[in-house]
Design goal:
alpha/beta, 14 helices, disordered N terminus
């Protein structure tokens, strides 16, 4: 739901089928502008091939890329290390906490909802045999962040691994955004990440202790995206923050890296970004790997980046999206739906074209 000063309605919330048909027609229109070179008299032949397909892939290729969800690193890779994960109670944060705990880390998870955190901490501790601490924290509030770090220091000492994962997002036309809607996202994503990073960074510097910082952003932090403008702007700011500090704070023993995930299905994110479920098929259709990501997959990547196996990695921005970004960026990538027989017909039509 949009956080706005006036009611803001999206077409897909009311008529998913009509929205799908509209999007397909729009995509088909874009395709046909690209094949006008074959001539108006011949375009009807091709039109029948691609009508309704919008150039999307079937997803059947996902069988070549099955997810492996067990812990990738050797057991004990995080023995005697403390990991601090914001947004650690649910979704991607929970998955990363689980993997780090399996690998030996003593984890501290933080978010606003203490009851959710405590339940997650108990479940992961029971599963892995390693203690997980739950600390309430509203990352939007610098004072709350300072108190959270105080509590963590008393429990575990300062962390060796910091993962800024807390986020907020919703889909909304930009003309419907209010100042409160803008702040609701940017305060969590950009300000929250900055407050946590600076509070911990300053204390670590004072104690002369090195650490690995990791931020979870998104592929559209790089490209921008309509309908999620507060999130796109804030995530781009986080990318700039971490790249800047990678250059400045390496001298203190601090590494900073970024993961830009594509669509990874979690209940919390998809309930706000795809509430009707109508867009999931379109998402899969533009991912060359042919499927959505799994939380355990990003957890393995986060564990590697944060581990001693990756101490030469700093300032890196890792796109983790099954190829979605490059597929959307390529001008003619939608032609993947053309069959070999259709290519032969198109080639003959192109060869017969006269003039420039």
């Amino acid at each position: 739901m949009c956080v706005s000063s006036a009611p803001v309605f999206s077409l897909f919330l009311f008529d998913p089928l009509k929205t799908h048909q509209t999007l397909s027609k729009m995509a088909a229109g874009l395709f046909w502008r690209k094949v006008e070179f074959v001539g108006a008299g011949k375009s009807s032949v091709l039109r029948s091939w691609f009508h309704g397909s919008a150039g999307l892939q079937s997803g059947s290729q996902s069988g070549f890329f099955p997810p492996v969800e067990g812990a990738m690193l050797p057991k004990g890779s995080f023995d005697n290390k403390v990991a601090f994960i914001t947004g650690g109670g649910t979704g991607l944060g929970r998955a990363m906490t689980t993997t780090l705990s399996q690998l030996g880390a003593q984890c501290v998870i933080a978010s606003r909802k203490l009851d959710v955190l405590q339940q997650t901490a108990e479940e992961i501790s029971s599963q892995t045999g390693n203690k997980v601490h739950a600390v309430q924290c509203d990352v939007k509030d610098p004072q709350a962040v300072s108190q959270c770090v105080d509590q963590m220091e008393s429990l575990t000492g300062l962390p060796d691994v910091i993962i800024n994962n807390a986020a907020g997002n919703f889909v909304c036309p930009s003309e419907g955004l209010s100042p409160n809607a803008w702040r609701a996202i940017t305060d969590i994503v950009l300000n929250g990440t900055a407050f946590v990073t600076l509070e911990l960074g300053k204390r670590l510097i004072q104690k002369q202790k090195g650490a690995s910082f990791l931020a979870i952003t998104t592929i559209y932090a790089e490209s921008g995206s309509g309908f999620v403008v507060p999130s796109a702007s804030a995530k781009a700011g986080v990318d700039a923050l971490y790249k800047s500090l990678a250059a400045e704070w390496g001298r203190y023993g601090h590494r900073f890296n970024i993961i830009q995930p594509g669509p990874i299905k979690t209940k919390g994110a998809f309930s706000r970004l795809d509430p009707t479920g109508v867009f999931e098929k379109e998402m899969i259709g533009r991912i060359p790997v042919g499927r959505l990501g799994r939380p355990a997959e990003i957890a393995n990547l986060a564990a590697y980046i944060s581990s001693d196996f990756a101490t030469w990695m700093s300032g890196a921005v890792i796109r983790f999206d099954g190829g979605e970004y490059v597929w959307m960026a390529g001008e003619f990538n939608h032609l993947c739906c053309v069959t070999p027989e259709q290519w032969k017909t198109m080639e003959a039509m192109i060869r017969s074209t006269k003039g420039s």
